[in-house]
Amino acid sequence: MKEQILIVEDQFVEAEDLRLLLEQAGYGVTGIARSVLQAQEMIRNKRPDFVLLDIFLKGKQTGIDLAQLLAIDNIPFVYLSANSNEEVLNAAKQTHPYGFIVKPYREKDLLVTLEIARYRRAHSVEAKYYKETELRKLLKAIIGGSGTWAQKLLAVTSALQSYIPFDFLVAGFDNLQQPHFKGLCFLRIGFDEYQVIGAQELCTITGKSIAELVALQGGSSSVQEAVYFDDAAFQHICRQPSLRQLFADTFQLRSNLEMPMRILDRKSFSFCLYSRRPDAYTVEQLELFERIQFSLIQTIEQLLEGEITEQASTQPAGAATIENTHTEAGFEGIVGKSHLLLHVFDHIKQAAPSDTSVLILGESGTGKEMIANCIHNLSARKGKPFVKLNCAALPATLIESELFGHEKGAFTGAHERRIGKFERADKGTIFLDEIGEMPMELQVKLLRVLQEREIERVGGRDTINVDVRFLAATNKNLEKEVAEGRFRLDLYYRLNVFPITLPALRERQEDIPALAYHFMKQYSQKAGKKISGISEQVLLKMMAYHWPGNIRELEHLIERSVLLTKGGTIEEILLPAVEKKEGRAIVEEAALKTIVENERDYILSVLRKCHGRIWGPGAAAEILNINPSTLKSKMKKLGIKKEYIK
Ligand SMILES: Nc1ncnc2c1ncn2[C@@H]1O[C@H](COP(=O)(O)OP(=O)(O)OP(=O)(O)O)[C@@H](O)[C@H]1O
């Protein structure tokens, strides 16, 4: 059946052209909406498979407002906009579109983007289905397994983690005074490691009595349906004294998802998840909960039935601290337990088993290559080749023959046939490091391999099928590269199917001591020295440093300190003298703008001063000393719309 597309575009001619183009390409068009309101009505009448969406429309609401509603309804959309400045791109990015096309676009670009969007959509649906089936299987296995109520509840909690992440979870009946089956709290302390906190431990940790906890529970408004509170909403709800507020203060939590369920005799049992990230929860997770709710209810009911029969022999829930023994399987060698790193592990676990392309983002030295290795080792391709190419290290011509190989005589110096990295990576994984440096002319060839999974050697005529998984990494802002025309949008979207962003070391200071000890051990062993400690003063100094070079910089500094240390403890560390300036330099560098951005900002500031007046004495064109029609065309080119001039 034809895929149905809704066009949301306020320019009549553009919208009609688009309709024609889509229909000729075999798509159906459900309608053309000129405003957000009209679009909503059309969607109510006929749900489209995709929405093509302009950003600035008739009426007050923009395409970005509509995108937020589409996300709730789970309708995929692609932006079509004349505006590609970073501000707009960033706002659009927050809505997770399936693509972004800058006008004027070529017909081919639009069709390719739609094709990619369809691919990504199909893939995300498939991945979702796979994940949910896996979760159901896990829950079944827990019911069939052995262990106490607390151990089984921990297993359920741990299974939930890769689907709905949390740093702290409270599971149990809404009444803390239940005679049996008291609620349990689980504090995440490693990838698959939790501290189990029962009511008594909670009293010790928070310094409150059971009676005070019960009173606080009374103060918490109980929710009837699954709901989430993110940053501002969470802060707001935590103003009232409640258990929620107590947990937030005690464990530094910033968002919350509550999942209440009715089980046995309509008693209310809930899973309350908390995260240290302000934006951890989304509508998608609420929907996931809806879909798995039945399996969760069944699991809890069956666990409780087992608990009743074994009641006499079980130890009181929450009286012990249980540590899950499956710690960090597959992440060996990666040091750190900060919640930001654990969040990266969650993403790796999700992405690794499928064949999805993964784009690893992060500053230089944050461990991108390590993560790529880890994804390969956790995938079914483990044991098959893992082939790496650094796109920044070679000129375009050499990258081409490195990647695709060449035939004998393909160019001067090609004395014999050479097998390229794609062929060597067959059945395995290819890791394209520094993908942001890939020359434009090669980007299109790479796109073809991603789409067709076939290559041609340089100077060759035959096409060769390759079965490779793509991992790519960059420390560049690829969206900015796209906006400035240095990176192909279609390639970006193909690679960006599953992005994983690594935090900078300065964002996870709590990992610094563990990393420092790890490198101390490694390098003292290498140097044949018996160094077993790092002074507190050195640790404090390291925690206060900005680490522009991240873990690699830390590694090199520890290596040097080990060589310079005479005794058994590292007492001194030579941090770069420019450390303070470095921080500023980074900020300044980030603030550096291109000539085009500066021109846009300047024109905007003049327009604002003139309250948007272009023509006439004292108006923007006169101040800028250019012709009003030149100014108008510049505004169009730079994506400056009236809406910006306030
Ligand atoms: N979490 C970690 N635990 C232990 N070692 C780490 C960790 N992260 C990174 N490293 C080490 O830090 C160094 C830099 O890591 P890696 O080369 O993977 O970074 P990168 O982000 O790929 O750098 P670049 O952007 O320069 O390519 C390596 O020696 C790696 O082993």
UniProtKB/TrEMBL annotation:
<dbReference type="InterPro" id="IPR027417">
    <property type="entry name" value="P-loop_NTPase"/>
</dbReference>
<dbReference type="GO" id="GO:0005524">
    <property type="term" value="F:ATP binding"/>
</dbReference>
<keyword id="KW-0238">DNA-binding</keyword>
<dbReference type="GO" id="GO:0006355">
    <property type="term" value="P:regulation of DNA-templated transcription"/>
</dbReference>
<dbReference type="InterPro" id="IPR003593">
    <property type="entry name" value="AAA+_ATPase"/>
</dbReference>
<feature type="modified residue" description="4-aspartylphosphate">
    <location>
        <position position="54"/>
    </location>
</feature>
<dbReference type="InterPro" id="IPR002197">
    <property type="entry name" value="HTH_Fis"/>
</dbReference>
<dbReference type="InterPro" id="IPR025943">
    <property type="entry name" value="Sigma_54_int_dom_ATP-bd_2"/>
</dbReference>
<dbReference type="InterPro" id="IPR011006">
    <property type="entry name" value="CheY-like_superfamily"/>
</dbReference>
<dbReference type="InterPro" id="IPR025662">
    <property type="entry name" value="Sigma_54_int_dom_ATP-bd_1"/>
</dbReference>
<dbReference type="InterPro" id="IPR001789">
    <property type="entry name" value="Sig_transdc_resp-reg_receiver"/>
</dbReference>
<feature type="domain" description="Response regulatory">
    <location>
        <begin position="4"/>
        <end position="118"/>
    </location>
</feature>
<dbReference type="GO" id="GO:0000160">
    <property type="term" value="P:phosphorelay signal transduction system"/>
</dbReference>
<feature type="domain" description="Sigma-54 factor interaction">
    <location>
        <begin position="334"/>
        <end position="563"/>
    </location>
</feature>
<dbReference type="Pfam" id="PF00158">
    <property type="entry name" value="Sigma54_activat"/>
</dbReference>
<dbReference type="InterPro" id="IPR002078">
    <property type="entry name" value="Sigma_54_int"/>
</dbReference>
<keyword id="KW-0804">Transcription</keyword>
<keyword id="KW-0547">Nucleotide-binding</keyword>
<keyword id="KW-0805">Transcription regulation</keyword>
<dbReference type="GO" id="GO:0043565">
    <property type="term" value="F:sequence-specific DNA binding"/>
</dbReference>
<dbReference type="InterPro" id="IPR009057">
    <property type="entry name" value="Homeodomain-like_sf"/>
</dbReference>
<dbReference type="Pfam" id="PF25601">
    <property type="entry name" value="AAA_lid_14"/>
</dbReference>
<dbReference type="InterPro" id="IPR058031">
    <property type="entry name" value="AAA_lid_NorR"/>
</dbReference>
<dbReference type="Pfam" id="PF02954">
    <property type="entry name" value="HTH_8"/>
</dbReference>
<protein>
    <submittedName>
        <fullName>Response regulator</fullName>
    </submittedName>
</protein>
<dbReference type="InterPro" id="IPR025944">
    <property type="entry name" value="Sigma_54_int_dom_CS"/>
</dbReference>
<keyword id="KW-0067">ATP-binding</keyword>
<dbReference type="Pfam" id="PF00072">
    <property type="entry name" value="Response_reg"/>
</dbReference>
<keyword id="KW-0597">Phosphoprotein</keyword>
